[in-house]
Design goal:
Elements: E1 6-15, E2 19-27, E3 33-41, E4 44-50, E5 55-63, E6 68-72, E7 75-77, H1 84-96, E8 98-109, E9 120-130, E10 141-147, H2 148-157, H3 163-177, E11 185-186
Parallel strand pairs: 4-9
Antiparallel strand pairs: 1-2, 2-3, 4-7, 5-6, 5-10, 8-9, 8-11
Length: 187
């Protein structure tokens, strides 16, 4: 069976700083017409950074759509055409002051593929030292260090509910359990 849906037309409903929204008229694989609502996003990056003591760096921040303070790995929106690894380094430094000695590609994550085109690039990192955090002017975050084993339990108990953070923590924990080194790309 063929699964591809064919775009007939696109109508933008909103063009913003972070997202664009559109409604597409499509043809389903069986030839019948349908409609798809799509959010366009330039993509994001997140970094699961580990200290020498085996702690993961998280940030505490208020997330307006959910009206909650969440614990998340350092992350941010990529600028159009920005190299994801460079974006990850930038976000890690801005939000935590952390500087990593090495990075390891943890793959991609599609957080909501049913209606949003966002791709999140995930990296693991080994922290070498800290400088002062440099958050954006509209960014209010508090860096937090949590032992990785405790962060895993926080994911399982529902204390950490952000999807990219859960995936990043679990991947790091499993890779370390398998003996994988984090001496990937040098900074």
């Amino acid at each position: 069976m063929e699964f591809i849906e064919t775009t007939v037309s696109q109508e933008y409903k909103f063009k913003g700083r972070v997202i664009n929204t559109r409604v597409d008229q499509i043809l389903l694989p069986n030839g019948k017409p349908a409609e798809r609502e799509v959010i366009e996003h330039t993509g994001g990056v997140c970094v699961g950074a580990l200290t020498k003591e085996g702690e993961i760096l998280l940030v505490r921040q208020f997330r307006y759509p959910h009206r909650k303070i969440l614990l998340e790995v350092p992350a941010g929106k990529l600028e159009k055409g920005e190299d994801p690894l460079e974006g990850g380094k930038r976000e890690l430094l801005e939000e935590t002051g952390g500087v990593a000695v090495s990075y390891r590609d943890l793959g991609l994550m599609l957080p909501t593929p049913g209606y949003c085109g966002e791709t999140i690039y995930m990296y693991g990192a080994k922290i070498s030292h800290f400088t002062a955090p440099r958050p954006d002017q509209d960014e209010f975050v508090e860096p937090v260090k949590v032992p990785l084993e405790q962060a895993v339990q926080m994911c399982l108990s529902g204390e950490i509910i952000d999807a990219k953070t859960q995936v990043c923590i679990m991947k790091l924990a499993l890779l370390l359990q398998q003996g994988v080194s984090f001496s990937g790309q040098e900074e």
